[in-house]
């Protein structure tokens, strides 16, 4: 009886990952270890439905290896959508690097998968690969970002945040008020995570360090394995929330937090970074939140 992919549990092991083939999906389990890319360790494992795969390639790799790669269907994976082509090759979760002597075996599985893939060339109308699960957080250069599944929060740091962000205060953004995310890799210049708001009239500043809806990265801040899964989870929640933003009541602030913000605002005022009018206005806004 000919072998088919319908038998669950077939496994192809490579460097840093193992692919387990099932009748309707490929389960990718990433190994843990000092040589495994940190993004893979953060992801742990991912189940990729066959309908999320547009095709497969098998190419020669470096130093006696071959590379089996699943080509994700556009719009099917929030992680790939958020990355927007910025992932380095060795951090691509759809690449399986194998010893060259497994070329024939890899070719066999690639052929088996191609028979089962029915991609028609159109982008997916919804995400098919599950996003990283909230809660998630990471430390950026100018603040701490956190996401609980419904709201993205930015808490500014004393040393890194611009005066514009300090004057705006810590921020909370329900996903229902967002239209998407903009992730720029920390491995490039001007890396940042910006939340795109549905209110087009709001007019977001061009520079992320001046935008209260953005956090900026830096050396050791917002690394790919922390900020990209965060961006993917937010993007998936935004898409799931639908086109109509819902009203969310504002939460009451902690009095101790308000007092700390007023103290820091006073320091900015004394340093000449905040005008008398700005100081009075912002202080009144903070007191009104008590």
From TrEMBL:
InterPro entries: DUF4429, SHOCT
Domain SHOCT stretches: 260-287
Protein source organism: Streptomyces glomeratus
Protein name: DUF4429 domain-containing protein
Alphabetical list of Pfam families matching this protein: DUF4429 (PF14472), SHOCT (PF09851)
Domain DUF4429 as annotated: residue spans: 19-113, 145-234
